[in-house]
Design goal:
11 strands; 301 residues; 7-stranded mixed beta sheet; Arc Repressor Mutant, subunit A; D-Maltodextrin-Binding Protein, domain 2; globular
Length: 301
């Protein structure tokens, strides 16, 4: 029922980027650009200003965005009302997930859920925790899957899995020979950190403070928004990094990175499912919440 072009256009406006919108929709940037250009050609009006890397809506684009949001919202409310009435689980399900959750937790969840509810169309947006909370508050997604503490008091978090954060280094890093790291060791090394606003970045800062290290004293060689890229940079010897055990599993298994021990301390965090309501009003989102509550996640090792 819903026109996917309206969603794509709204995403470009909200993220101010074709590349970020394409990544969130698992499309190529050229495919996203072509889709929006085709929409502009069909309407006969320019909707977006393309000034370098910054994308902004034209006056017509602002009006089109506003109307598109209303149309998409009405589509969603109408479909949910009908499906609730006849007790059918189908239609779109909008989910926002952090990179780690989307890559390592959710594929098996989605596979099993889709087998049981084949008429549900899952729309997944991958972003950081801060953005996912914004998307929930602004009604762009039904459910969020994030890691770390949730400080937004208007949201309803529910723990679904546990993750362990480890410190990793390339296999030839001198620190791999040490049985336990000290604070001095951490300060001496260049770090590859996740982007500001991500759940794990906040977790890292809290941990550093707990071991009497000011996060400002850490040498940061790179800050990246892609978990896999962080692992690759560690493998190349660019620095050490905090990483989820889920994300580092393959690199640890093949021996290209090793775990650095920090006073035998286990750094654990939680994965949470979050929503605006304790029980979503739509039958599809409600069914997904109940499904993931009963899902058995396996630890990577």
């Amino acid at each position: 029922m819903e026109d996917h072009r309206l969603k794509a256009f709204c995403l470009v406006v909200e993220l101010k980027s074709f590349s970020k919108a394409a990544e969130a929709k698992f499309m190529t940037q050229s495919a996203m650009s072509h889709l929006i250009k085709k929409l502009e050609d069909e309407l006969g009006v320019k909707l977006l200003n393309r000034n370098g890397k910054t994308i902004t809506p034209t006056p017509a684009g602002k009006l089109f965005y506003s109307q598109s949001k209303q149309i998409l919202g009405q589509y969603n409310r109408m479909a949910n009302s009908i499906y609730d009435l006849v007790k059918i689980v189908k239609g779109p399900l909008y989910i926002g997930a952090s990179n780690t959750a989307a890559t390592y937790l959710l594929p098996q969840v989605f596979y099993n859920f889709s087998k049981e509810y084949p008429e549900v169309l899952i729309e997944l947006v991958v972003s950081n925790t801060e953005r996912i909370m914004d998307d929930l508050n602004e009604g762009r997604i039904d459910v969020g899957i994030v890691e770390g503490a949730i400080k937004e008091t208007t949201l309803f978090p529910e723990e679904i899995a546990e993750d362990e954060i480890i410190i990793i280094a390339a296999d030839d890093n001198p620190l791999t020979a040490k049985k336990s790291l000290t604070s001095r060791d951490l300060i001496s090394q260049p770090f590859i950190l996740p982007e500001t606003g991500s759940g794990i970045r906040e977790f890292i800062d809290d941990f550093l403070r707990s071991v009497k290290i000011d996060p400002a004293d850490i040498k940061i060689s790179m800050a990246l928004g892609n978990t896999e890229l962080i692992i690759q940079m560690v493998q190349s010897g660019m620095g050490i990094a905090f990483a989820s055990k889920w994300s580092a599993f393959k690199a640890l298994k093949d021996g290209s990175v090793r775990i650095l021990n920090m006073s035998n301390a286990k750094l654990a965090r939680k994965f949470y499912m979050i929503s605006l309501e304790k029980e979503p009003s739509g039958i599809t989102a409600r069914t997904f919440r109940n499904f993931i509550r009963g899902f058995k996640f396996f630890a990577p090792f």
